[in-house]
Fold each of these.
Amino acid sequence: MDKSSDIDKLKREVDKIDEELVGKLAERKNLTERVQKLKREGGLPAIDREREKQIIERLKKLFGGEIDDALITKLYSAILSDSTRSGRTKERVSSAKNILEALQTNPIIIAGPCSIESGEQIDRTAAQLSNYGIKFLRGGAFKPRTSPESFQGIGEEGLKYIRAAADKYDMFVVTEAMCSSHLDKYYDYLDVVQIGSRNMASYGFLKEVGKATAEDGKPVLLKRGFHSTLQELVYAANYILEYGNPNVMLCLRGIRTFEQIDSKMRNTPDLASILELKEATNLKVIFDPSHSTGDSKYVEAVSKAALLLGADGLIVETHYSPKDSISDKEQCVFPETVERIYNFAVDYNDFAKSLY
Ligand code: PEP
Ligand code: MN
């Protein structure tokens, strides 16, 4: 009898401490949100791994005797990730809003090299493109090459270069994520998440993309599998849409048909599919004249045809010096070609408007 009333008394004390603990956690969160806000205003990174380590080490030193080290690490990993995540979510939502606003332009022109090769290469290409009014800078850091012997991209270093160039020239980064670990590690480098043709049917990955982008609505550029039907492309988009991100753009990039027996083109440009996709979905349709033809001499004509057929935009492989491209140099154009295509689109829009 006595014992149970003692237990009850102690339990009530425990309850009180729990209330105080969670109350203190709320106070802590409030303070860390203020820190995150100041970091955002100062353009500083949201996460400081060194500081996180110091916090945990300090607590272990102070309380290690009474509380298990592993428990301190576990508890604080959860608390620290909660405070940086809540700051980051707000930051991400507002940055996704800016990207979506920029995507309202007609046409959407995405240009840049096949692969990011160096800081100089992406900076020089971006400088020229931005001068012509281009807002979306492409470039692969991780390249899905058919042969493992081919150049695979320069990885995170490349993402840093393209991010720096885009920030410098007030552009947005369009780059491919090849797997969910890229989404985890590099999310903030990407303004538009490109899914490559070879990954269009990786349904597990598409679900990861849907989950990762659901919260902030970051746009996704989904490329058609070069062996996929239009229905399969639409289904693949649905995998992402189902998680609640409505901002999926479909990219036609050429398909492999029997023409490739004797056609010199890398693929058959799936131009007429623009008409069908525009009818079948409300999603934006982007055409890729580079991979669909594989030859720089056709890029301008096919781009114009795509725009006349109603494409919402283009993604064009561009290099300040195409002959020096490490990958896909045969299909790469000078920034001046993109300027001509862009001017054509603007003139055509004016003409189309004058008809109504
Ligand atoms: C690309 O655009 O960088 C690319 C690799 O294209 P695709 O996935 O269409 O082959
Ligand atoms: Mn390429």
Amino acid sequence: MIVFKTNSELRNYLRFQKNEGRTIGFIPTMGALHKGHISLIDNAKSQTHLTVCSIFVNPAQFNDKQDFDKYPSTISEDILLLEAASCDVLFLPSVSEIYPDGSENAREYHFGHLENVFEGAQRPGHFNGVGKVVAILLEMVQPDYLYMGSKDFQQCLVVKDLCRQMGLSEKIKFVACPTQREADGLAMSSRNRRLNESQRAIAGLLYQCLVSIQSKSTQNTPFSIVAKECNDLLLAKNILPEYVSLAEAETLMPLEDFYNNKKMVALIAVKIGNVRLIDNMILN
Ligand code: AMP
């Protein structure tokens, strides 16, 4: 695997590869890699000639400075995992490489309703920060395929919309990859490392809530009742729910109840201690 730290070196190398007719699959990450990230690498390896992964903890998408400061960094382990997965290129830029004029001066993108609900409501400015960094990375890498995880369902919709706004929807094929889970159903996440043993032991409840919402969605139980059961279950274990919600999967318009004729997604965000976790499940 070749590691590039600057845009100019990366661009030169990728230009050469493109001229040779090779397709590029791109996986943007913030590092502290786990099997969920590696599944995106595997997808790219199977569909493209050259797999490019980036690791960049983007300050612009953290509305909580403490969350940014505590974000895990495990670069040497990440490199070993990427090499084991036969990733071809790692892009490891500094903050000034991505934002030479400061992140506040980078081009802003807006996503309407999508930036104001669920994660957008809980983390004001988060998706604008995601938009900034992904736009810059897409301009640098110019991939043919972009791989992202369905675990961050709202982020997938935001980045698809970003590609549309940048006029790249035809050029870049967006691939949403399935969520990789631990044995108890907990979605793999870099943040799981911050859970202590007792917190980790109860974290599988998020998945249990999603499974229960999915099964009740076909049983005529009103969503409000299912959501209350989930909230009560979480609170009983000292897990603080931020939202347990239902939305139309394509638009993320919130839904009050289950609809047979709509593709729906259940979304959940909680805090266990000071660790914030999110997950989701498509219902039909
Ligand atoms: P992050 O490093 O958290 O920014 O994640 C980088 C990419 O990996 C994003 O597209 C995530 O959605 C994806 N990802 C994170 N966790 C998982 C998982 N458990 N399964 C599949 N993809 C994931």
Amino acid sequence: MTLLVCGRFRLDLSAPKIMAILNLTDGSFSGDGLADNVGEAVRRAEAALEAGADMLDLGAESTRPGAVPVPVEMEIDRLAPVVERLLGLGVPLSVDTMKPRVMQAMLALGVDMINDIMALRAPGALAAVAGSRAAVCLMHMQGEPRTMQDRPHYQDVLAEVGSFLGMRAAAALAAGIAGDRIVLDPGFGFGKTLDHNLALLRGLPVLVQGGFPVLAGLSRKSMLGQITGQPVDARIHASVAAALLAVEGGGRIVRVHDVAATRDALKVWQATRTGGECEA
Ligand code: HH2
């Protein structure tokens, strides 16, 4: 059994978990942003849990190429009222941020996980998380969000992403973040072409061998549009297929927009593992 220490919770990752995306932004690529609408954010969070989400991931700054950066205070102002309302829901709350001051503010409020697309590389980020009991997701990204898709380049994408994640996990451990708080993520779509993303999805079992639980965020991403020709609001089937492939490859957490559809797919996957305990 793989137990993830996640703030107030111990998450049993022997069965894969669904992390529901809650974007408190105004520019998310999937068009689901909810900047400054606390009531609607809470309603969507509750709906996601009802649909089968195991945890929530709140972000207040879009990472879409070309998105306008959000100042620290605005990011905190968008997140704090929603976090305060969601802390009582009884599930782990993750905050998607790359800013140490936002991490500190959210950890002080009591969030259970920091999800950082910069893998705690910003000055002060390691220390901000080390002083807490929160879990952390360390994600790979080549370049920075604004320009990352300009000309991504790798000799061997799987080896390079694996080695980067290994180094960031080592840095986290050295900073005092225990290994049972660390999750790794290859960062689908973050400085990667379609071929790079596919190589990583195929190679997920290799990344999993590193020993840390792996999170996969493929939901509605442009790689799925490239494969299927579907616009972002019609990628639900492709997203479910991708989540299933990630789990089959050893991924333990899938970060998704479409919770109910993913939940059913993972139930089918789980049934093939355990023999099935469901009704006919
Ligand atoms: N993808 C996005 C944002 N955060 N975090 C992790 N760990 N892994 C991911 O793949 C990942 C992430 C981008 O998706 P989304 O939040 O839906 O869009 P936007 O950044 O435009 O708000």
